[in-house]
Specification:
Helix content is about 55%, strand content about 15%. It is of the alpha+beta class and about 120 residues long.
Amino acid sequence: MPRERYQNRIEILQGTLDLLILQILRWGPQHGYGISQAIRSHSGEAFQVDTGSLYPALHRLEKQKWIASEWKVSGNKQRVKAYRLTVLGRKQLASERSRWKQLMTAMAGILNPSAGESEA
């Protein structure tokens, strides 16, 4: 990977990782490595989640009953823990997406004020 790409990685805001995991699992069940790869690829390689952040988040989401897991055998005959979104997780995802839209609107109001307002 080119050095510039690595330097352009963005640290994921605290609390955002849960939203990203729930969204990835909305697309279908996935194991931990698959979740981290999906986050990386769908963010244009800007986000990289290490295992030290991902697995505690998965355990936390499972404890909250937003996701569930089961052991499966992967295509290369290895046991993997597959995670899926639960009904409660779908509700939480809808709530988090709504909050995220509010945040984006608020940020846009500050970063792109209307023409009549003064900019510093």
